[in-house]
Amino acid sequence: MEPDCKTEVRRPILSISGLGKSFGNIQALKDVSLDIYDGEILALVGDNGAGKSTLIKILSGVFRPDYGQISIAGRVFRHLTPIQSLKNGITTVYQDLALVDCRDVPCNVFLGREPTRAGFFIDKKRMASETESLLSKLNISIPSLASNAGVLSGGQRQGLAVARAINQGGRVIILDEPTAAMGVRETEQVLELIGNLGRQGYAVIFISHNLHHVFSVAERICVMRNGELIADLCARDTDPDQVMEMIAGVRQKQGMGRTEVVNEAL
Ligand SMILES: Nc1ncnc2c1ncn2[C@@H]1O[C@H](COP(=O)(O)OP(=O)(O)OP(=O)(O)O)[C@@H](O)[C@H]1O
Ligand SMILES: [Mg+2]
Which of 96, 137, 223, 229 has its CB surrounded by the most CB atoms within 10 Å? Predict the structure, then answer.
């Protein structure tokens, strides 16, 4: 599905087609299709239980879909394992960030993938210099690389987790509620980082309940409701009130190539 705001013809980096997933008798995802392009910042919004995390967990290989398929740069998968997902450039930064608090910045960026010298010694010098250039490329400011992750601010920790995702080869960076529980300044840093990732050509999918954050950085807004993708909107063609009404189910489906009334009572 070509989003409204993308007029030029180009190939999606990630294409989700007709995905469905149930947990017992709860249908968490129903026939969800979505194309994602390089360099675009897509916000995934929806009420609690709408299916957002289920969708990204399928993309990161945590859940297996019941039906549908996923294409990454033209390769088609019925389901992904976490390793396949990572190898194909999809990296997810979960809310807990999975940092090792008692290790320094380069150790966290290279966790489990440390470069070695003579095939044996961990190459600390290379880790530090590559970490430095990665942080500077992403405009992530961490005063000292020697700091342990545990002493960094929320925004710096998020930056570090994103740097690691990119160091792992991520092309599509998925962030599940990256600004939840953050202060104003930290939130600004994270939103700036998301904008920067888009400008560097990475595709970003981020989940947020905060429409102010969504509108400040996303170009495209996808609304989920009861497991369905009910709207695929260009941010500049909509506004927070309209999106809020869609989340609540009092607005028509939009940008989906069809128009249906979501809540017929209104
Ligand atoms: N592992 C699971 N086992 C059983 N049910 C699940 C599981 N994961 C999700 N669900 C159910 O699937 C539905 C979608 O959940 P999901 O976590 O995807 O929602 P969400 O949009 O991420 O919500 P939130 O905004 O609260 O994080 C919910 O009804 C949820 O209870
Ligand atoms: Mg969730």
Answer: 223
Domains of the chain, residue spans: 1-89+171-266, 96-165
Secondary element (H or E) of residue 30: strand 26-36
Residues lining ligand 1, Cβ inside 6 A: 23, 26, 28, 46, 48-54
Nearest residue (CA) to ligand 1, atom 22: 53
Structure tokens at 141: 């400011």
Centre of ligand 1 to C-alpha 27, Å, is 10
Q: What span, in angstroms and rounded, lies between the C-alpha atoms of 31 and 25? A: 16
Determine which residue's CA is closest to atom 4 belonging to ligand 1: 23
Nearest to 219 by CA among 8, 16, 36: 36
Region of residue 188 (phi > 0: left; psi between -120 and 50: alpha; otherwise: beta) = alpha
Choose the CATH number for 1-89+171-266 among 3.30.390.10, 2.40.110.10, 3.40.50.300, 3.40.50.720. 3.40.50.300
Cβ-count burial of 102 within 10 angstroms (0-12 exposed, 13-18 middle, 19+ buried)?
exposed
